[in-house]
Amino acid sequence: MNFKKIAIIGAGAVGCYILWGLSNKEDIDISVIAQGERKERIESEGLVINDKLYRPKVKTPAEAYGADLVIVAVKYNDLQSAVADIKEIACEHTVVMSLMNGVDSEETIASAIGEDNIVPSLIKVASERKQNSIRFDPETTIGIIYGEKDGTRSDRTEAIGKLFEGTWLNYRETDVILPEIWSKFRLNVGNNLPQAMLGVGVGAYGDSEHVAALREGLVKELDAIAEARGIDISLADPSSTRGSKVSKRARYSTLQDLDAKRHTEVDMFSGAIIRMGEELGIPTPYNEFAFHMLKALEEKNDGIFDYE
Distance (Å, rounded) from C-alpha 71 to C-alpha 62? Predict the structure, then answer.
């Protein structure tokens, strides 16, 4: 099995990392999926990645039909639109990797195309985005982690390794992909949400016992849910317990969304924890507070509280 025809859904930080990393790979057809005004904008403006202008091939879902590998790199609010694109792109042999945050995007995609087409995966890349410009540190980026649910090496995972081999991407295969995914979920909930509520850089976690206490409360609830679902996060590689190296002023994706007056992925983070907690009978007061606080900040950005 060889992956020659690659389609990327989502041209944000993650999509740009993949595009950048595969740009030196020969004998592959790689494209960004878009249509309408967005397709025209990417084609006319390109994408600036670490100060270099890239002009990727842009295809509609119909033009990308039959892709060997589809990499999903969208925000949670765009997942349903991405699923519609995947259904139009995928054929019987297509493999899908979801590099989204959270722990439930693959279930949503599987409900549309079937679980057999999906290789569970995750990515860790810390970046800053300004308009169509993305910056990240290739040296400190942890990169892509992937593997089959049953822990075996398959033709599909070998094909992914061959695709990434010799590129600029950082990657590794794992035999404990679900604990790895939940380990990243734990990092995102603990690191993204307190700083987003406060509007401060990540240095706050080391400089304030109160910010650290907020993080601890959020992840304790997540840990209880993971244990109840039979997910042993301790099985994840030690490198998965930390994010990519960043400065104290760094603002993770949730705060970046608020800064840009976009809606956040809190539904994928605390929203998912609240739903799972209700199903399992596990209280989640910290995550309920974070959920409502971030939703209120979104409303503030939307102008709902402009009373003048």
Answer: 16
